[in-house]
């Protein structure tokens, strides 16, 4: 139902003419009717059941202040000789509240109720008018009304009883009404929410309230931020030290607690910080004395001991206590049983279902649960608490603190900076392990700032020389990639920050069958060959690469690039990998075949029929259409076996469109120039498709700008390893000189819109 706002002049003129008669006033009259003659009206708009709590609240209010609003009623149709009754069209909740007061003994069914009587014909209009156009009071108006009653001498208990709220709620509303008038006006005008004004009300000081609000920017006026500003250094009940001492102990010692009217019972502020500190020290005193008696160099109690406070200390590692003979026997027993369980589970995994050694799901699950229990039992032995030697205790100390939950927490074997020299000497003399933090390092003659400056010059010099020596640059890049993909670690052995991302969807995970198919064996064989050829020690890799022919370096680069290839997709759309496939003149049909397992079982029968109709013949497609899907898939596999057919998105060479940003080399990273990059080149078809006989649209980019001429391995060859090559520099400079806001692939693209050897005509 559309709601019409009466104040809208445009609506009034179109829907309600200015001279329209008052549709209710003409027939309405005020009457007094006994409560027993009032009944529910079938025309009352509200059909849902009234909330009992609301009825009780209105009953209490009417008992206290009487009937303030009349009921709107209409005469009900009655039989002859029956007393006339009146349906309550507006005010049904008030009628139910009056009946409740009758039950309570505060009202009588014969008592008269003030009503406005209307005709039955206008009942629906009257009920809708009362319910739809009634707006609740703003909370600010309610708070001021309560304050006015309090100013007249009404008690909080009286106000609470009249308006069916708790006395605590009334006290809170009165406190909100007493907030700084400037701030209360903001709340009344909806420029501040209820949580914010509650936060400001934790103090009665208007100046502090205004300073907290107007002194904060818009983003720091949340309720928690305002409460934090006004709270100052007072601790909340959630503070770790308060939780440890407990509020009860603090109050028992005479501590003052400041509670917010709007806070829960478990929320408040600790006012006397000195008392809390004393109670904390008293509670941890016994623990401190216990560790002092153990012989530690020093013991301290601290309320907090966070990461920044721990940084100056070096922690000594505890020695593992040897197992007793009984403990060792128990551990060996657990290990033996764990081996038996694992062997049984492995045998079940290897056995044929139903064969010897194969376990039911229930039996296998029971072994898994037993294995978990055995692991937990052995971990208790492995993670047993160690012990500290007398030498360690002589040079280190203990901090007794509490965690965020308020539980006691102890940090042992902490070496202070001033004790590090002595600790190192004592541990070395005892033949004990010396932590890295205590290892003596000679202070260099250069400051950190100077080292940063000098190494920046070194980097600039190497960068300057590297752009003129493509051979070393190639080795440096491939060296970095080999560390990542071949050695799988030691990236810190390279100063080059180039890296390739691992594919989001690795081939082996989404298509595990690839590992078993011979047509894909060349890649793992190449990886194995490269691994075999590289030095075992990654520290020798860079020097080894410098001594190798460039063909070897390029071969390693090819393997690393293939490692990082990411062409797996969730959607049938252009993919950058198609450009690479075209450049390689790759016939995908030689690798993937439309078998039942690879394709036909996973598509609909209609799709199978459509493919066969296109690739084989329409007659064959019609024949398959009459079969069940399983039979159709089997027949289709045979019909497509030698057709070199690929699905459209696998055969197409389109590349996903993108926008590219090219930067000015002289300006570094600060000046990027946007250029339209038509990466989707339809395989960059530049000549008519001889196979189809149709002309292919010429990509405008191919007509406007020739492909970038990137150097190949032969271009980079030089007579000596020390000779500088200007070829790369010249090629790059020429490319930038000719560059417009366009870009094309740096190799000749296929001359057909399909990848090589795919999508033959039927």
Tell me the layout of helices and strands.
Layout: H1 9-15, E1 29-34, E2 38-40, H2 52-65, E3 71-75, E4 86-90, H3 92-104, E5 112-118, H4 123-132, H5 139-151, H6 156-163, H7 167-177, H8 181-188, H9 194-200, H10 206-214, H11 223-231, E6 235-236, H12 240-245, H13 247-252, E7 257-258, E8 269-270, H14 273-294, E9 298-301, H15 307-310, E10 314-315, H16 325-350, H17 361-382, H18 390-395, E11 397-402, E12 408-415, H19 420-429, H20 448-466, H21 470-485, H22 507-510, H23 522-533, H24 541-546, H25 550-564, H26 577-583, H27 605-615, H28 618-625, H29 629-639, H30 648-651, E13 658-663, E14 672-677, H31 700-704, H32 713-716, H33 727-738
Parallel strand pairs: 2-4, 3-5, 9-11
Antiparallel strand pairs: 1-5, 3-4, 6-8, 7-8, 10-12, 11-12, 13-14
Explain this structure to me?
It is built from 33 helices and 14 strands. The protein has 762 residues and is of the alpha+beta class.
Strands of the widest sheet, in order across it, are: 1-5-3-4-2
Average the pLDDT over all residues and give the rounded result.
76
The percentage helix is 40-55%
Distinct helical segment count: 33
Structural class: alpha+beta
Q: Work out the radius of gyration.
A: 43 Å
Strand proportion, as a percent range, falls in 5-15%
Shape: extended
First and last CA, distance = 61 Å
Low-confidence parts: 1-17, 658-753, 758-762
Count the E strands. 14
Main pleated sheet: 5 strands, mixed
Count of separate structural domains: 5
Keywords: Plasmid
Region (Disordered): 319-338, 684-706
InterPro entries: Chromosome_partition/occlusion (IPR050336), ParB/Sulfiredoxin_sf (IPR036086), ParB_N (IPR003115)
Domain ParB-like N-terminal: 31-132
């Amino acid at each position: 139902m559309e709601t019409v706002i009466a104040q809208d002049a445009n609506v009034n003129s179109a829907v309600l003419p200015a001279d329209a008669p008052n549709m209710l006033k003409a027939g309405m009259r005020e009457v007094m009717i006994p409560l027993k003659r009032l009944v529910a009206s079938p025309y009352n708009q509200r059909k849902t059941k009234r909330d009992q709590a609301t009825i009780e609240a209105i009953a209490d209010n009417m008992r206290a202040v009487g009937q303030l609003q009349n009921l709107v009623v209409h005469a009900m149709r009655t039989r002859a000789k029956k007393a006339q009754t009146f349906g309550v069209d507006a005010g049904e909740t008030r009628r139910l509240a009056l009946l409740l007061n009758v039950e309570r003994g505060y009202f009588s069914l014969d008592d008269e109720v003030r009503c406005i009587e209307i005709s039955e014909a206008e009942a629906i209009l009257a009920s809708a008018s009362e319910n739809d156009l009634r707006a609740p009071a703003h909370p600010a108006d309610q708070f001021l009304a309560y304050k006015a009653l309090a100013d007249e001498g009404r008690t909080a208990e009286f106000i609470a009883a009249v308006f069916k709220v708790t006395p605590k709620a009334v006290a809170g509303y009165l406190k909100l009404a007493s907030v700084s008038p400037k701030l209360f006006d903001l709340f009344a005008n909806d420029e501040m929410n209820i949580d914010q004004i509650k936060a400001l009300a934790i103090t009665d000081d208007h100046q502090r309230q205004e300073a907290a609000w107007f002194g904060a920017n818009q983003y720091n006026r949340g309720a928690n931020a305002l409460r934090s500003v006004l709270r100052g250094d007072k601790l909340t009940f959630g503070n770790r030290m308060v939780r440890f001492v407990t509020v009860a102990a603090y109050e028992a010692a005479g501590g003052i607690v400041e509670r917010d009217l709007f806070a829960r019972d478990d929320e408040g502020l600790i006012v006397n910080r000195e008392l809390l500190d004393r109670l904390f020290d008293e509670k941890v005193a016994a623990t401190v004395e216990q560790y002092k008696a153990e012989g530690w160099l020093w013991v301290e109690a601290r309320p907090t001991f966070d990461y920044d406070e721990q940084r100056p200390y070096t922690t000594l590692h505890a020695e593992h206590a040897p197992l007793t003979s009984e403990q060792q026997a128990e551990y060996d027993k657990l290990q033996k049983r764990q081996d038996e369980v694992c062997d049984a589970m492995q045998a079940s995994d290897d056995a044929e279902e139903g064969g010897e050694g194969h376990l039911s799901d229930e039996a296998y699950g029971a072994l898994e649960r037993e294995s978990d229990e055995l692991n937990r039992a052995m971990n208790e032995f492995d993670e047993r608490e160690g012990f500290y030697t007398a030498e360690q205790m002589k040079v280190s100390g203990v901090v007794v603190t509490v965690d965020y939950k308020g539980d006691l927490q102890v940090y042992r074997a902490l070496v202070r900076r001033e004790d590090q020299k002595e600790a190192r000497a004592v541990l070395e003399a005892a033949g004990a392990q010396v932590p890295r933090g205590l290892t003596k390092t000679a202070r260099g003659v250069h400051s950190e700032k100077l080292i940063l400056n000098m190494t920046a010059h070194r980097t600039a010099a190497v960068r300057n020389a590297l752009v003129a020596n493509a051979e070393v640059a190639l080795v440096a890049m491939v060296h970095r990639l080999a560390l990542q993909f071949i050695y799988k670690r030691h990236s810190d052995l390279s100063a080059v920050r180039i890296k390739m991302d691992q594919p989001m969807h690795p081939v082996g995970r989404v298509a595990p069958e690839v590992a078993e198919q011979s047509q894909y064996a060349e890649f793992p064989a190449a990886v194995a060959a490269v691994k075999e050829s590289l030095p075992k020690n990654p520290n020798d890799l860079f020097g080894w690469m410098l001594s190798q022919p460039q063909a070897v370096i390029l071969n390693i680069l090819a393997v690393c690039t293939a490692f990082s290839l990411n062409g797996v997709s969730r959607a049938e759309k252009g993919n950058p990998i198609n450009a690479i496939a075209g450049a390689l003149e790759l016939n995908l049909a030689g690798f993937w075949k439309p078998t039942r397992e690879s394709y036909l079982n996973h598509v609909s029968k209609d799709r199978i029929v459509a493919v066969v109709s296109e690739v084989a013949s329409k007659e064959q497609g019609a024949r398959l259409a009459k079969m069940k899907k399983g039979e159709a898939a089997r027949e289709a596999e045979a019909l497509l076996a030698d057709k070199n057919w690929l699905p459209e998105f696998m055969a197409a060479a389109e590349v996903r469109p993108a926008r590219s940003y090219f930067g000015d080399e002289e300006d570094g990273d600060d000046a990027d120039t946007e250029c339209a990059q038509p990466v989707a080149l339809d395989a960059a078809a530049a000549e008519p498709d001889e196979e189809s006989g149709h002309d292919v649209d010429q990509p405008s980019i191919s007509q406007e700008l020739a492909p970038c001429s990137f150097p190949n391995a032969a271009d980079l060859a030089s007579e000596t390893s020390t000779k500088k090559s200007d070829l790369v520099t010249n090629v790059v400079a020429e490319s930038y000189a000719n560059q417009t806001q366009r870009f094309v692939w740096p190799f000749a693209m296929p001359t057909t819109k399909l990848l090589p050897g795919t999508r033959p005509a039927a």
